[in-house]
Design a protein that fits this description.
Number of strands: 28
Number of helices: 15
Helix content: 25-40%
Distance between the termini: 62 Å
Radius of gyration: 23 Å
Structural class: alpha/beta
Shape: globular
């Protein structure tokens, strides 16, 4: 029996419709026949030139581009798990992830050459360069439970953790998404704008290929470009985070008016952070009813819930019902299920769960309990079974749809001479969802620009605090824990 791999549907489509366009990006295209030929050529080079085989890992550092999806497809099919490194990281951050992933090969976009060099991995290949000649691939293929990708996320320690996702888990996500969103089939034309290096961005962007559809990739997000693409009437599905919607509705009213009503969308999918209710109303009024889905999930748990179009205005601040083939349990501190309208830690289980954290059995044991996974979110369930998130992962900030883990930034800030301690936290922001603030204790505090310039050399720009607060002492509870919620309330009200 053929194993269920993320490439299974892609290869089937190549036999059925070889001349159909599979990928579009910046005016360039790949047919399914061309895509499979490139996958085969890359596998041959990886095996015979660079010496990788099943069980090894590689790292990929690139923005959205034609080569991204074919690279993950090629390596994962031969059992080489791909660490998808965020191209917006600093050199030291990227190097730390590449080293942790034990990557034996780094593939990179030309714009990410400095990040690839920082990794100090000897074997590298720039995407788009001619592949070295090699005999055909003749190694072992992956099986369903093999890890296809290792996206990285952070935890309370501040150190990034690799999330192992199997072929089977991702394929089951593909099937569930096709059933739920109604915009994934061989006839689909999906507009992919989210970064493919993120778990959600990759899943939403790769699914059309599994079903023999067409993926149109945008290298970077530009609100007017996205609106124009939608108005062309080719795209039947799109995935965006709240910041994308905000940028679209901040466009010139004349541009919005000129493009209103011109689309063929069947589904608009939002994820990453909560859509404000006024924004939902704008989306529905502008694009029409019956389109908007708002999902909740995590890299570890996959898609956990979905608020369907007909519930968007009926259920406020709600993340919906359990996703296809997913079970949800809300538990108290004793591990017992809580009744309706009572907060409890959200656990989920289903066929799309991750396989554990890469080389972190301790963290895996903490997140997984008897086949159920929790990422620390607190939620309530109403009498109809709908889920509402009331608190998030410890201290995590979501800014512009991107998860930012304060401890990771705090570790760097505390390395600045003269800073005794600090706390990084988020405050509500109309456009970004949350803005990053930093409170420091220092006898000779630096000015905000000096600290920002110093941090800019050590962390990605999207992790930089937007405001600096000098305090005599950080507020703490009786156990000594810093009360970040109090900080957020204090400075968020200013």
């Amino acid at each position: 029996m053929r194993p269920l791999l993320i490439t299974s549907g892609l290869r089937a489509a190549a036999k059925c419709t070889p001349d159909k366009v599979a990928l579009i990006c910046d005016g360039d295209t790949r047919t399914y026949a061309q895509l499979v030929a490139r996958i085969d050529a890359l596998q041959a080079a990886v095996q015979h030139v660079w010496g990788l085989h099943k069980g090894n890992t590689a790292a990929l550092i690139a923005p959205n581009c034609l080569e991204y999806l074919e690279t993950v497809a090629a390596l994962s099919e031969m059992g080489v798990a791909v660490a998808t490194v965020n191209y917006r990281l600093s050199g030291p951050e990227a190097a730390q992830i590449v080293a942790d992933a034990q990557a034996k090969l780094v593939l990179y976009h030309e714009s990410c050459a400095a990040l690839a060099q920082a990794s100090e991995v000897r074997r590298t290949h720039m995407l788009g360069e001619r592949l070295p000649d090699a005999p055909g691939f003749d190694g072992a293929l992956a099986v369903e439970e093999d890890v296809f990708a290792i996206p990285y996320t952070s935890g309370t320690t501040g150190l990034p953790k690799g999330v192992m996702i199997s072929h089977r888990a991702r394929v089951m996500t593909f099937y569930a998404m096709a059933a739920e969103y109604q915009c994934y089939s061989s006839a689909s034309h999906f507009l992919a704008i989210a970064p493919l290096c993120h778990g959600a961005g990759f899943a939403f962007g790769f699914t059309p290929l599994f079903f023999g559809g067409t993926v149109e990739l945008l290298p970077t997000f530009d609100a007017e470009t996205v609106l124009t693409k939608i108005a062309e009437g080719k795209a039947d599905g799109i995935f965006m985070v709240p910041t994308h919607f905000q940028a679209i509705f901040n466009l010139n009213p004349a541009v919005l008016h000129a493009n209103k009503g011109h689309h063929a969308l069947r589904s608009i999918i939002s994820n990453a952070s909560a859509l404000p209710q006024p924004m939902k109303r704008k989306i529905i009024e502008y694009f029409g009813p019956g389109l908007l889905h708002e999902t909740y999930g995590s890299t570890e748990g996959g898609i956990v819930t979905n608020l369907r179009p007909f519930d968007q205005l009926r259920k406020e601040r709600c993340v919906g019902l359990a996703f296809v083939d997913t079970e949800i349990s809300l538990r108290d501190a004793k591990g017992e299920d809580v009744p309706a309208n009572t907060p409890g830690e959200l656990f989920s289980r289903g066929p799309s769960l991750f396989s554990g954290y890469w080389r972190r059995p301790d963290a895996t044991a903490e997140a997984m309990q008897d086949g159920w996974v929790s990422v620390g979110d607190i939620a309530v369930r109403d009498e109809e079974g709908y889920i509402y998130i009331v608190d998030r992962k410890k201290d995590m900030i979501i800014s512009g749809g991107i998860n930012i883990y304060p401890r990771e930034v705090e570790t760097v800030v505390e390395g600045f001479d003269g800073i005794e301690e600090c706390a990084v936290f988020g405050v509500p922001h109309e456009e970004w969802g949350e803005a990053i603030h930093c409170a420091i204790v220092s006898k000779s505090p630096p000015d905000a620009q000096t600290l920002s310039d110093w941090l800019g050399e050590r962390v990605a720009r999207y992790k930089l605090p937007r405001a600096l607060h000098v305090v005599d002492a950080l507020p703490r509870n009786a156990n000594g824990k810093v009360l970040k919620r109090l900080l957020a309330e204090t400075y968020g009200a200013q």
